[in-house]
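S., here's the first fold you wanted:
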Amino acid sequence: MSAGLFGLLDDVAVLARLAAASIDDIGAAAGKATAKAAGVVIDDTAVTPQYVQGLAAERELPIIKKIAIGSLRNKLLFILPVALLLSQFAPWALTPILMIGATYLCYEGAEKVWGWLRGHDSHAVPKAAVGGDPEKFMVTGAIRTDFILSAEIMVIALNEVASQAFWPRLIILVVVALVITAAVYGVVAGIVKMDDIGLHLAQRSSRFAQKIGRALVAGMPKLLSALSVIGTIAMLWVGGHILLLGTDTLGWHTLYEFVHHGEEAVRGAVAGIGAVLAWLVNTAASAVIGLVVGAVAVAVMHVLPFRKKAAAAH
């Protein structure tokens, strides 16, 4: 009987070691998948602060919290189940769906550029929304834009763990969703509250702290404005890059090969920094593609009847 007990304990120990190894593998895969999605994470971080510009300081963190919860809901309740089902039963559908989302990103970015050219913010809260709940309008817009970025993040992560079995794949993607959401909105919260930190430092007795505090207070509006520009460029870049890769995946290789040849020519022509310049070529080409597609989408949307009614409400 004692031999049986020791045998059982030995089996339990073996299972425990296997479970620990699986956890290590899942952790490593989640880290790799998160790193692969880092580019879109940066874009998401740059896009979000524009939605709290001009709001009362005491409402910034509550609104960011609402957006973060909406982002997590996007990832876990909508994107993750659909992505897993499609990857399991209809993997061919992922690329067209991503390209539709990319077109929306291009539209958002191009509309922002159009607003700059016309001398006003195309993302300003419309009068109709001001009469109702402007915060809800801003949060809804932010979550809608986040949905596309979150979908890209989750699909990139899914692609990295496609060889995993279903349950490890599910766990990895849940970990990626939690880590990325916490990282993005933690950084965003820090950015938008930096001026309050600066004000607190400016009131300290230390001259050094006062100097740092005044610099933070003076610099934050410029940083937020810069992030608005970066966020717009990021939307065009990410959207254009998804479309560039998508057209190649669907069988139209001309555009991708043209950009790829340009990358390779730059990579081989300049020693030392060729890889960086090649990346810049791809990024610039993706942004141009995004701007062109977005401009077409803006032109189409501005001639549609319901779009004219929405514009009249501003």
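And the second, which I think is the more interesting of the pair:
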Amino acid sequence: MNISTESKLMNQAEAAKYLGTTVPTLNTFRCIGKNTIPFVRWGRCIRYRKEDLDKWIENHLENQT
């Protein structure tokens, strides 16, 4: 995995705000494996890359209700 120097890892609060959701929702996704967003575990800390969040958004776009 090659992380560019411009890529900043977001903490859970930043990632939740970026996605318009909450930290507990991200925790649920991660723990039960539903709608899993790639993440980095750094010790006890969880971090997200912006490009992974953007890719997750693109993969969950829907055209119909």
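Why I say that: The helical segments are 12-19, 23-32, 50-59. The CA atoms of residues 29 and 36 lie 6 Å apart.

Talk tomorrow,
H.
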